[in-house]
Amino acid sequence: MARLLIACAVLAIAQAAFCEALPLPARDPDAASGSELVQIIERMSLEQRERWVIREVAAGNVPSWNRTFAPVTWTQQIGGSNYTVVIKVLPEYLALGTDSDYFLCPMAPIAAQRLADKLDCVLPTRKMVNLVWTNASIKLNPQPIPPSDQMTTVPVFAQHNLMVRQQRDQHTNAHPFGALVSGHKKDVVISSKIYTNFATAARQPVVIYGWHYTSGAPIQPLYNGHSETWADYSHGIRLVHRLVTINGTSVPITNVLTDPVLAKLLHDETVAEGAADGIIAAPNYRRPGVAAAILRHPRSARIAPGKALVLEAVADGDDPLHYEWRLNGVAQGQGTPFVITNMTGGAAGAWTVVVTNALGAATSRTAVVRMRISSHPVLFYEDFELPKTNAWTLKSAEASGPPDYAADLHFKHLYQPVMLGGLTEIVPAAPNAENGDAYAARMAVNAGDSLGAVCALNAFCPMTLSSNVAVKFDCWINYPGGALGLNSTGSTQHALFGLNHSGLLAAWNTAASDGFWFAMSGEGGDSRDYRAYVGGPASSVELLGPEAGLVASNHLAQFFQNLFPGDRFETPGAPGKQWVSIELRWTNNTVGWYCDDVPVATRVNASPYLSGRLMLGLADYFPSIANPAQDSWVLFDNVEVEDWSDRTRIIEAARRGPEFEMTFSAIPGRSYRVKRSSDLLVWTEAGVLTAERGPLVFRDTVVQAPGFYRVEGPL
Q1: Residue 304 in 3-state DSSP?
Q2: Does domain 650-712 bear CATH number 2.60.40?
């Protein structure tokens, strides 16, 4: 009688109807795909990886077909009473990414439990796993990978993900994505065995089961021989809605598993397996609280007056998380994103965010916000957001061996991982980027073969420039290892940037070249981290001492320690692994090099090269190969050429089919009036245009013959 009363009490706790889908926001179209996510998490520690995965899921980075629950129904008799039971499960194991490019991500049990709790779900029992397999539309064959010490690493996860995907794709015509699938992973399950074996105050086991053959026999019996930090390629996380429907009434699964009468509806463990009194007394993994940690730091930015300043950070930890934004140490507001709708000088400075929860606090790195003041017409602007064909030209040179470089002038850096302070982060948008721009020009040298050689790669802008210009761009120099390239080899490479090149000769240090340029290393591994060069008919010449015009040449100089401080840069005094804003200012006969608005070098242009093309590049002045080579590269973004003669220039004018097209320089944020005439006497207005970041393009369909045009402004 007592047991019957307990069962009635459980069923009497009626709940709201099932939510048919995971409680997640819509997926951001710019979120990482499955393959991009693999690239990001590949070298993360288990803790960092699982924090990242949980945040990705919470942000909605889940395929649309793996959000809606699928019902699994069965009937069972207990003590003469008949029960119809319905659980709802996701059709696939935990998957992240797009509908077509997704990653089945194994997790250790504590993180899996945390994710289930966050999403109002539970993990399955052995009995549920068997029922999922029985009801699955697609029963895949298990595909084991031979055991090794690599089976808990992300590359092996990705290898198995590909194997499963190739098998799954054979069924898409009959069973599109969203159909219930089983047989391709072991399940992390809820079991009484959680509290045996390793069960101490500090440790507990992961319990796994399943991976059914198509015959229905599981490869993996109920097993608790691995500890709570174990997750190998074969593990899958199947989320089950926390409510089960029993004879039409919805109740929590955890309540049923702890009820002596009804527990057998959801589990089949015996007393010998630890299920005392026929129940699973603690139907979850015991998990400690998770303190706040910052996964993505706020980015430095340059914002035009009147534009919105948007500061964002991504953090993880037990809810609720509290974000407090500080400007130069003074609290300004809360939440993320934090938006200042009208940028003024008062919002410029050093920003940090402090993220707290009940278990601790984390403070971000400093993000520097500057005003972007534009008072000169822009001759050229390039943000590399569109694929390039022949607009920029490439030139490489090597002291020995075949060409060894990689260049991508439309590189998506939004999910490019970097190792920073021992943790994996991703490259944020550049300071001068707008609207979340995610592309840049990427260059790498000495990265494609095993032959180390002095070499360089240059990209030449299509526009010819001369005196009275300022060239501005954002630059990120990446390097392997930690500060000063610690725990790596061959890390020292130099970003290059110069003016007045022909574009026919590579700018480097051992052969004929032209133009003049500067160079800087990312991690301070050179005796001359900051350099100046001028081209020559036999070879380039490195300018030394006063001739170079450098404030200092080594990162240890106090000047560079102040310019690139340790609260922002991994190697104090060196600009690597962060965006820096570079300016080359050539007025009259003086050339100035600025980093983040601070003059680094000023020299007289005594070279014979008085006009030519802008060059951006990367050089390895040492015959070595970076290790790991994948971490050695440079990014350039938001290239802008300003005309310091302060006059509006017609850059290009041509008739294109039935239209007339004219490109002219303009000051960002200012408006210009275009007029047309057929006799140079009477002028009529053809349009008013407002400049954003680059030159203005005017198109006219009312083409007169003869036709004349002029530009008035800025207005």
Answers
A1: coil
A2: yes
